[in-house]
Design brief:
Layout lengths: L9 H13 L4 E4 L2 E2 L8 H18 L4 E4 L2 E3 L5 H5 L11 E5 L6 H13 L3 E4 L12 H10 L2 E5 L9 H12 L5 E3 L13 H10 L2 H14 L8
Helix pairs in contact: 1-2
């Protein structure tokens, strides 16, 4: 089950799913990396792990939905990987979770997301609060949102797990209702656990129940479960 830098074996995979269930997760999209050479897992390994997880979930927690996608590491021309089906969109929709190397330039991030939009995909900027090049610039985020990019914030960033700058940016994006998704970005049971409850408790206290409902709805829309109302 050790696909990349997530669960190291089947036991940890099941323990992570149980923690996710116990802390309120009911929609889980597993997103192994694509385009990161040292982390890429084979299609067979990913498929086997995913089906093991689905089988366990169906037996023990049938109310939980477990879906598949990839987290695409952006590089020029990467839309061809999506077109060929080598890199998976989220649940086979047009939504693609995309990240960039930490040192990437502002122009590459902005232009890369626009390139994916022009290729017919709806990019979700993964852990948007963590890019130094964007410097928490709300004008850059507004520009991307206006173009159709969705902004995703990591739950643990709200509490400072990625430093003060990321914490400030994450909270500002949420307070301004600019983020469309809040996700656990879980990798293990301790340092990066699958706990979404604390983040949504913070959201209820500092934003509104309407915004938390919006985030839940947007997560469903992103993976094609619920259609946006006209």
């Amino acid at each position: 089950c050790h696909v990349d830098d997530g669960a190291r074996d089947e036991d940890m995979m099941i323990a992570m799913l149980e923690m996710a269930w116990q802390t309120g997760t009911r929609l889980l999209c597993v997103t192994p990396h694509f385009g990161v050479r040292q982390l890429n897992g084979s299609d067979t390994l990913i498929s086997d792990a995913y089906h093991q997880l689905c089988s366990y979930t169906a037996e023990h927690h049938p109310e939980m939905r477990v879906l598949l996608g990839n987290e695409l590491r952006y590089r020029e021309g990467c839309a061809a990987w999506l077109d060929a089906g080598r890199c998976k969109t989220l649940n086979w929709t047009d939504s693609v979770l995309v990240d960039f190397i930490a040192s990437e330039s502002r122009d590459t991030i902005l232009n890369g997301l626009l390139a994916l939009l022009n290729a017919g995909y709806r990019p979700i900027l993964a852990h948007a609060e963590r890019y130094p090049a964007l410097k928490g610039d709300m004008d850059d985020f507004r520009f991307l949102i206006d173009k159709g990019v969705r902004i995703q914030v990591n739950a643990d960033s709200i509490f400072g797990s990625w430093g003060l700058r990321a914490k400030h940016t994450a909270r500002k994006l949420l307070m301004l209702r600019m983020a469309s998704l809040v996700c656990s970005d879980a990798h293990d049971l301790e340092k990066r656990p699958p706990n979404i409850r604390d983040a949504f408790s913070w959201l209820e206290k500092h934003t509104s129940s309407e915004y938390t409902a919006y985030l839940t709805n947007q997560a469903k829309i992103a993976v094609g479960i619920k259609q946006q109302k006209s």
